[in-house]
Amino acid sequence: MTANKTLLMLPGDGIGPEVSRQVRRIIDWMAKRRQVTFEVNEGLVGGAAYDAHGTPLTDETMADAMGADAVLFGAVGGPKWDDLPFAVKPERGLLRLRKDMQLFANLRPALVFEALAEASSLKPELVRGLDILIVRELTGGVYFGEPRGIETLPNGERRGFNTQSYTTSEIVRVAAVAFDLAKKRSNKVHSVEKANVMESGVLWREEVQKLHDAKYAEVELQHMYADNCAMQLVRTPKQFDVIVTDNLFGDILSDCAAMLTGSLGMLPSASLGAPDASGRRKALYEPVHGSAPDIAGRDLANPLAMILSFAMMLRYSFDMDEDADLVEKAVKNVLAGGIRTSDIMSAGAAKVSTTTMGDAIIRELDKLS
Ligand code: NAI
Ligand code: MG
Hints:
Subcellular location: Cytoplasm
Protein name: 3-isopropylmalate dehydrogenase
Bound molecules: 1,4-dihydronicotinamide adenine dinucleotide, magnesium ion
Number of strands: 14
Distance between the termini: 15 Å
Structural class: alpha/beta
Subunit structure: Homodimer.
Cofactor: Mn(2+); Mg(2+)
CATH class of the largest domain: Alpha Beta
Keywords: Amino-acid biosynthesis, Branched-chain amino acid biosynthesis, Cytoplasm, Leucine biosynthesis, Magnesium, Manganese, Metal-binding, NAD, Oxidoreductase
């Protein structure tokens, strides 16, 4: 299978380049061993772009992102750039990418690897085999709604306010992503809001139900209030498969679900936009963690969140499920073999560097293919 698959890599700052390098090795391996070639373009983002160009994302790099089939993003930020004005802070680079690419669906898996079940904050038997996918609406809701602000009232008191707002199309497009994903998994969706106290939640529930009945009747749909969902996630997390929810609840619930799996260094994510006429979605893949300045430059970072983000890219942008499975299986087997970076270290395991973890993944891919 040889096709023109274009990929923009934006390693960024801190450990971003270190973990991105390990993905580059897998891409090279795939070209050699699976005859899959990506046309890889690399660019600067965040503090690295600011240092070179005075902006965290140049128009040129933005155009490259718009033209690529997928963007693989490392991490941005660090103490060196903490005092920059808001408009050129490293994070602005990522925010612009999300906004201009209109990435409205944020996918956050919470997957427990058997070898790491002990690392969860919950009892191992509650999380063993856990595999949840949270779909968070990313471009609407209370983080963007108008009016917003802080005002001073006639009595001198100050008032801060934000607006939770969703249109039917915003709800339907993210719900459709969740239903489509559920069909490839165990066919179950929990839609989460607070319809008991919020009108936006009432509309959310009605629109999700309507879409379900019209187009996805074969998927099992349950509605759940967000507070109950938070409780259920830490009580019996395995009842969930796909959870779809708004921006605010998704922010909180995805962090909560993530910690069921143990380490920040293991968590991938994907952000998807609307499909174009040819069915291609703009997409950005990134680890959940940041640039980890405390360990940057020392070959200590766990590259697995980045590698698993790459696997998501294979699955969601390129329909290469078999290759995605292969990469995920390599990660699983390497962990089962007792190889660990320091962040996921446990008794009896072998502590390795970023590069050595990369070596182990490549060796395992060789074995599996
Ligand atoms: P962080 O995720 O960078 O680090 C939190 C802790 O987890 C640190 O102790 C770090 O060493 C550890 N850690 C994170 N990723 C790891 C990995 N792959 N392997 C081993 N250990 C890992 O979050 P923090 O410290 O709050 O932020 C540091 C910088 O990163 C800040 O400038 C922040 O703005 C930026 N940041 C960027 C993000 C992005 O680019 N999407 C997301 C979060 C933070
Ligand atoms: Mg968060």
